[in-house]
Design a protein that fits this description.
This protein is of the alpha/beta class. The chain is built from 5 helices and 8 strands, in the order βββαβαβααβαββ. A hairpin with a 2-residue loop joins strand 7 and strand 8.
Length: 204
């Protein structure tokens, strides 16, 4: 991250409601928005019109790309896809039911600070933290003094944002799943990340 002291404001949002080819299982697939999800994104865009959003970014997963497309159209700004904002890759656990204990073991370890844990054939916590942090800091460097909307995913949001923010506890986001279109407002500059508002709790 550059040393410029003009912060960027990132509105980091979970994508809209989505459905998947196989529901209820671990997956690295992108899914697609439901009618409800499209309505949620449209409503979010309406609430942000007064914020003078400079651009809308998303992960490369289809449900996030669709969310960004709709929001960008509603806000009249460009949409860009950025690598690094995806959910953690679950590797060999793809297709395993969310009810299976293995589905939560690794992520729960990450939330407790054990980032060496990893999904077999997938990612460990250090990898997820590094690429998500880099992606958002690259966006922040591009938009100093501006506000941007970023569509990503609930798991990676809950893992990384509290751990990197200087004004909240690391264990703030023990709840893995956030409501669709939930937004964390984060200020990013050379001094670090600061949560201004979040879907998890009131911040300091």
């Amino acid at each position: 991250m550059s040393d410029l002291q003009c912060p960027a404001t990132l509105l980091i949002a979970r994508h809209g409601d989505a459905e998947y080819a196989l529901g209820g299982v671990m997956s690295d697939e992108g899914g697609w928005l439901t009618d409800l999800g499209r309505a949620q994104v449209g409503e979010l865009a309406k609430t942000l019109r007064s914020r003078r959003i400079a651009a809308v970014y998303s992960s490369r997963m289809e449900r996030a790309v669709e969310s960004a497309d709709l929001a960008a159209a509603g806000l009249g700004v460009r949409r860009l896809v950025t690598e690094g904002l995806e959910e953690p890759s679950v590797g060999e656990l793809a297709g395993v039911s969310f009810q299976d204990p293995r589905a939560h073991l690794v992520f729960d370890a990450w939330l407790q600070g054990h980032l060496d844990a990893g999904y077999p054939g997938g990612e460990d916590g250090h990898t997820v933290m590094k690429r998500f942090k880099q992606a958002l800091e690259d966006i922040a460097d591009t938009h100093r003094g501006e506000t941007v909307l970023v569509f990503t995913h609930s798991g990676v949001m809950s893992l990384v944002i509290p751990m990197l923010s200087v004004n909240v506890r690391n264990d703030l986001a023990a709840q893995r799943f956030l409501p669709t279109c939930a937004v964390a407002e984060v200020e990013v500059d050379a001094d670090g990340w600061r949560i201004l508002s979040s879907p998890w709790t009131t911040v300091e």
